[in-house]
Amino acid sequence: MWRSVKTEIAIFLLKGLKPETFRDRIEQVNIQDIDPDKLTPEMLDKIVEHLIAKAVGNDPQAIAETRRQLEAGIDPSALVVKTTAVEIGST
Known about the structure:
Elements: H1 5-17, H2 19-22, H3 41-56, H4 60-71
Helix pairs in contact: 3-4
């Protein structure tokens, strides 16, 4: 639900008057500093899903086929990735 104007003003003033206490908390992580051994299986699955979607596009059939091939133990370097050609420079 939306906050009231008074609440927004109070938050704004607190952030301005005591920024060290009332600042927005943002955690930034350098992807190169992540240790894969410390990731949960759920996190690793999300990364795998993202990389498969990037490799084959957002085609659910292609994603399912690639996942099936990986689960069957096929060497990932032997997987055939089908892509669609995009015509560049047509006017």
